Amino acid sequence: MIRLFKHYVPLPLFLMAVTEAVVLFASMYIGAVVRFSWEDPSDIESLGPIFPRALIFTLVMLSIMTAFGLHQRDVKQEGEWGHLVRFVASFVAGLVVMLLVFYVFPHLHLGRGAFGLVFLLAFAGTALTRLVFVRLFKLDAMRRRVLLLGAGSRTAKIEGLERDEQGERKFNLVGCLPLNNSDCCLDRTRILHDKGPILSIARKYKIDEIVVGVRERRGGGLPADQLLECKLAGIEVVDLSSFFERETGQIQVESLNPSWMIFSDGFGRSPLKDVSKRMFDVAASGALLLLTLPVMLITALLIWLESGGPIFYRQERVGENGRVFRVLKFRSMRQDAERDGVPQWAKKQDSRVTRVGRVIRLLRIDELPQVFNVFKGDMSFVGPRPERPFFVEDLTKKISYYPSRHTVKPGITGWAQIRYPYGATVEDAVQKLQYDLYYVKNHTLFLDLIILFQTAQVILFGKGAR
């Protein structure tokens, strides 16, 4: 993992994206040179500067590939066939967008023959890049070797993080060193019975990283001198909370100490960050209102034709610093969805959802009116999902650190929304809170852009709706 603007990015994905950027950029130069300089080298001079064309092409293609879910942690979740479909679809979309760019800015056009060659080179080059990286990072030598210090209940979840959803190893958990005689919550075969300095044991097993899973920090419970020795020897030493944060994109509530929240980087506010986020929200919401007006008018008509009654629904939600505001959404449920007056969680295949409502939820169109809330300042484009006061009061009593999610503005989309499906239980709320805490700690414009791109994938492929 590497950290870009506070956000953890898997090193394989980062290296692959950088290589793809180089391939896309070079494809424009190679295609233009081959097409125009093959017979007469002077022809390339009449074309004009290639650099702006290459830069625009690279940015467009990388943005579309990201929006199609090709630059995220679970890129392999749908298997090789699903990955191939997304890859081909992203290039088809890229072709359409580039043709629109050439139509609006005709002086950037290379000509059909040259652009066709550029596109073929880019497609073949990025496909080969992905094939090489997929094979390369399956090698065991490319995975970090991790040593776990401590074997108590706080460390047990690390075993479940070792493999991804496809069963492939993300890192090699070599074993664990218990520091005392407390109960072991790990597989007994993971226990290392080696004696001696931690550095010697780490060198014996060629350890790259030591994860400290011990809660005691004083009174001799933590071998700080030995860990410092390991760090000075080039072995990375991290605490359990930071390890979970990096590997899952969550901040685990169970293993969280208040002191970690206080002294770790993040969880901070700055006027510059707040102003830049607000400027982005105002500009983007104004533009989106104009662009989506036809879609909203059609949606309003369909809702009215199906069930009549109100097209929108307004509901109280809890915003930044606990302030209550009224959120605006397209109505996707029956008018008597809560006939007894008691708030209810949304359920899977909820019978209260109308036919039109099911479609607009699938495509997230029901969220579009919230752009007015963004423009007004009640919400941001990106942030934790705003919840109803009834649920906030209930969950605050049941879940530690729940109020911390209200230290930033709620959003139309967010890190929890794209990483976890709709939830209807307290356990689901815990999982989403852990994603929200990651966002509260690490939110930057860079992370906001990543979330917006991945939200586009949710819309394109209809994920996350009920």
Describe this structure in a few short sentences.
This protein has 466 residues and is of the alpha/beta class. The protein folds into three domains: 2-136, no CATH class; 143-248, Rossmann fold; 271-336 and 345-461, no CATH class.
Structure description:
- This protein is an alpha/beta fold and 466 residues long.
- 51% of the residues lie in helices and 10% in strands.
- It has 3 domains: 2-136, no CATH class; 143-248, 3-Layer(aba) Sandwich (Rossmann fold); 271-336 and 345-461, no CATH class.
- A 4-stranded parallel sheet has the order 4-3-5-6.
- A hairpin with a 2-residue loop joins strand 1 and strand 2.
- The longest helix is centred in the middle third of the chain and has 37 residues, at 271-307.
- The model has no long low-confidence stretch (mean pLDDT 85).
Kindly list the characteristics that best describe this protein.
Exopolysaccharide biosynthesis polyprenyl glycosylphosphotransferase, Sugar_tfrase_EpsB_2, transmembrane helix, 17 helices, single chain, alpha/beta, 3 domains, EPS_sugar_tfrase, 4-stranded parallel beta sheet, transferase, two-stranded antiparallel sheet
Q: What average pLDDT do the residues reach?
A: 85
- Describe the sheet with the most strands: 4 strands, parallel
Report the end-to-end length measured between terminal Cα atoms. 33 Å
H/E element order: EEHHHHHEHEHEHEHHHEEHHEHEHHH
Transmembrane segments: 12-38, 50-71, 83-105, 117-137, 282-305
Subcellular location: Membrane
Pfam family, one: Bac_transf
GO cellular component, one term: membrane
